[in-house]
Amino acid sequence: GVPLPFPAALLVSPGLAQSPISASTPRGFWAMPENLTAVEGTEVELRCGVSAPDSVVQWAKDGLLLGPNPEIPGFPRYHLEGNPAKGEFHLHIEACDLSDDASYECQVGRSEMGPELVSPRVILTILVPPRVLHLTPEAGSTVHWVAGQEYEVACVSGDAKPAPDITFLQSGKIVSSVSANVNEGSQEKLFTTEATARVTPQSSDNGQLLVCEAFSPALDTPIKASVTMNVLFPPGPPVIDWPGLDKGHVRAGQNLELLCTARGGNPPATLQWMKNGQPVSIAWGTEHAQAVARSVLVMTIRPEDHGARLSCESSNSVSPDVQEQSVTLQVTFPPSAITILGSTSQSENKNVTLCCITKSSRPRVLLRWWLGGRQLLPTDETVLDGLHGGHISMSNLTFLVRREDNGLSLTCEAFSDAFSKETFKKSLTLNVKYPAQKLWIEGPPAGQYIRTGTRVRLVCLAIGGNPDPSLTWYKDARTVTEPRQPQEPRRVQLGSLEKSGSTFSRELVLIIGPSDNRAKFSCRAGQLSASTQLAVQCERGAGRGAGWGAAVEPGSVASSSPLIPPTNLTILANVLEDVPAPPRSAPFKGSAASRSVFLRVTSRDHGHRVTCRAHSAELHETVSAFHRLDVLYPPEFLGEQVLVVTAVEQGQALLPVSVSANPGPEAFNWTFRGYRLSPAGGPRHRILPGGALQLWNVTRADAGTYQLHCQNSEGTAEALLRLDVHYAPTIRGLQDPTEVDVGGSVDIVCTVDANPILPDMFSWERLGEEEEDMSLDDMEQMAKGSTGHLRIRQATLAQAGAYQCIVDNGVGPSARGLVRLVVRFAPQVDHPTPLTKVAAAGDSTSSATLHCRARGVPNVIFTWTKNGAPLDLQDPRYTEHTYHQGGIHSSLLTIANVSAAQDYALFTCTATNALGSDHTNIQLVSISRPDPPLGLKVVSVTSHSVGLEWKPGFDGGLPQRFRIRYEALEIPGFLYVDVLPPQATTFTLTGLQPSTRYRVWLLASNALGDSGFTDKRIQVSVTTPGLDQTPGEPGDELPTVQPPGPLGLPLLPVLFAVGGLLLLSNASCVGGFLWQRRLRHLAEDISEKTEAGSKEDRVRNEYEESQWTGDRDTRSSTVSTADVEPYYHSTRDFHPRLPPMLEEGSYPQGIRDEDVAFQGHLYDEVARAYGLPGTWGPLYDEVQM
């Protein structure tokens, strides 16, 4: 102890004189005690040396005399040390405690050598160190604090003397805001210190310690208690990694891949990509070690993406606001098409006017014209605003065409520096029209007389011309046509136009009649014409009507005076007044008679015939002639006029006109929405010769009422026609995603723009895997006008997923819209079994990976505990990786350098979101013997075989194999068959006898032992049918070993006895050597198999939908004792090389096969080889496997 200066005082026991003692050494003392300070539990010696050694010396404690006995009865820790003969009476105290904290005196009794003496009073101060610190929150725990908020931490020391000083350290820095109080302890002279600190954590404190330190003179080093600060703080702003230098500049058709990274944050950031405020990607990954969240957006750029704002949003549970970084796309796209408007057909030496228009492009393109290889200068150029921020380029061209330009290619070419490697062209062929060069007629010579009834052939010929000249025959300025009615005499045969090289011809064949006499027959080709006359000899004349060509108004009176050579005339008509006339002379030296009629006509009489017949009694002939009435009347719309026309968008529409008028209508004027349509036509309309309005590339904007104004010289008429444009549906509104809590109700609403609107045009589909139930029977489908509803009541998790709204109104294509139904629900952790096992060697070199998967919406946060205590993920031996994909979340906890003492424990994975939490337990255990297989059952039975199937149990962390033991109940002894391949979970046991009852066991084993035969679930009984019950199949195998007959049974004990003696005689020679070698290779084999493991087992037991985000260590094996899909291996053609082994009876100690299993004491040796004595038993006692 260190002597402390205390004020000197004198206290003498009763019976002794008390007198002050000077500071110098009193008389009779050569060594004086001094004030001492000692820590509880140490040894102390108070010195006292007297000059009268024969005197009685004793010590007094707080006035209590301890007696002269050196052993000091009643005080076992007190005794006197030194040589009394030399006057040494030192008080020695062992293991000091608080009771020794007192004042002490050395007293010398009266003797012959001198009077009684008393030493100065000294103080022995005992320091008691604090044994414990009580920290609130609990020491060793992890506190979850939000950065920037103030928290209060209390630290109370245990009993101590003196009261300790308490200091708080936050991440190694002293906390200044501390208040402390000293209170009395549980005993007198003991004190406690209660200190309270106000702590404001920052993000830098995450994972650091908040330490409470207690300082005391009784301590060499302060005692500490700490908590780990898990500080929740927002992540940093997201950063978008743009490929290339020109940020935001992309090309249509380009596959754009953007990486968004957000660093920091606890918990790590949740990332989401938005496009114009709508989510486009919700998948991201996190790396907890670096606290980095990453999300990749992949999209194909389209022109309509120009100006789109792509933003990456970052947030977590403590973010005050969502942080984002955005980029605006500047899309470069070429024109999708080039169109040339106008006609490329024109007469020579005239101007052609054309317009070249491009679709929208960005940047604008320049246009130039080419005629053949010659560039033409445009008349003017115009640039208009186009779709998606682009520009429409338009170039007008007017040039004079020549005959030699005919057939040349006229090209409009678009080019731009932005598309230097691409060329966009539109070409048309120029058609230059020019007349024929020469025209003549070949026929009978001029002046030659031709008798009536003679067949005459006239040929019109022309050379050259574009287009091909249309040769037209005329008779006295009237076009020659063939008879319209088949029953009329065929006097005229008009041939078709024929071509031979550059020469064109057309034939006219006539049966000559009187009217052909001196008639002028002309042939015309454009502006050229040629003519000839025929001289006809006739026997009598044909009748004709005088004044019959005049037109009459409706309601007026028409008269006729035909001149027919015969004398008897008959008029066939509705005669209003009949006026006969006297006969007179006629051509061809004949007589003529005339007769006049008067008719009142209407528009309905137009085109009707008035027939006059003349009969000659002398000639016995009758001649008839008719006149077709030409009634003039204003336009009249007929009853069959269509008033409503239906068309499909982007198709054609024809608004027909059914009108009657004489003369024909002079003009058809169409008006739409107050604007008159050009009679010359436009880019998308044309007025046909009959007045019908033809539209193409019809759009929904063309729908409405069209007014037709029809006019001729007699008057006008109007009609209203309505155009109804049907167009395919387009989905205008679809809320994606649509969210609902489990058990709630929601409507998925689909709004469309369509014509027509049909009551049954909405349908819904649910998208998913084929094996899932995609029916919508539990949902209600409704439609009202242009809005369709899919109503879901009491939503379940099975209903979550993608739904498709399909709208089909009969105008293709149908519209489809995808909407995701998100059913929010509390986390549901996959529970393969109540307890999942993971095996790993506890040699501090192996690693183990624990898999935890949960489903939940919204996102899930994973936490891990070990044996109920929060897991310190700051420990470098623990690494956690999380992965989120939609509603599936995975956490992979990797434990490096697995230690049996520290890591063989029960790990709990807890998944939490705003709606609740769920957890599962995973036991990390040592490699061990395998568990018994599960679900052994018979799947097929024949007379000679039995098909077995099972599911593997926990393999103990090592590759396992299976062996089948079976017996016939009527025959003693067991037979064994190894299952090959070792991983198979099905096997066909062959070589059996018909009509025999068998009992079958299944054993699993690995390098550390076997599962044993005690579990009743690994045995089945089966009876093979007789041959007469089940006909044998060609593939059935016969027994590979015939069971011994009755004569062979007595030999079995003898054979086994002899074999046993031979084995015993050899065991003494080689037993020792094999035993040592076996132990030496055992540890090596276990280590190799542990490190290598079974790749198939590892893959089979991992969650298929999880994605690894970090390094893996393969020296661990995971298996769940739940039902798993077994691996089937065909054994139909498998034959064991060796016959089954026959035994007398069962061996309760297991199979004695060194390659398959080890005995119990070998298992203990392995435990000792791994340096884990005492850890195997308690582990399995605590956890029920």
UniProtKB/TrEMBL annotation:
Ordered alphabetically, the record's keywords are: Cell adhesion, Cell membrane, Developmental protein, Disulfide bond, Glycoprotein, Immunoglobulin domain, Membrane, Myogenesis, Phosphoprotein, Repeat, Signal, Transmembrane, Transmembrane helix
Q: Where in the cell is it found?
A: Cell membrane
Top-level taxon of origin:
Eukaryota
SUPFAM superfamilies (UniProt xref): Fibronectin type III, Immunoglobulin
One cellular component GO annotation, for this chain's record?
Answer: cell-cell junction
Which BP terms in the Gene Ontology apply to this protein? cell-cell adhesion; muscle organ development
Q: Where is the Ig-like domain?
A: 20-119, 130-228, 237-328, 335-429, 435-535, 729-810, 827-928
This protein's major location comes to membrane
**What molecular functions are annotated in GO for this chain?**
cell adhesion molecule binding
Residue ranges constituting the Fibronectin type-III domain according to the UniProt record: 932-1026
Q: Where is this region: Disordered?
A: 1089-1119
Q: Where is the composition biased (Basic and acidic residues)?
A: 1089-1103
Its placement in the membrane is given as: Single-pass type I membrane protein
Any signal peptide, and if so, which residues? none
Question: Where, by residue number, does the polypeptide cross the bilayer?
Answer: 1051-1075
| Listed PROSITE patterns | FN3, IG_LIKE
Q: What does this protein do?
A: Seems to play a role in the development or function of the kidney glomerular filtration barrier. Regulates glomerular vascular permeability. May anchor the podocyte slit diaphragm to the actin cytoskeleton. Plays a role in skeletal muscle formation through regulation of myoblast fusion.
Q: Which family does it belong to?
A: Belongs to the immunoglobulin superfamily.
Q: What protein name applies here? A: Nephrin
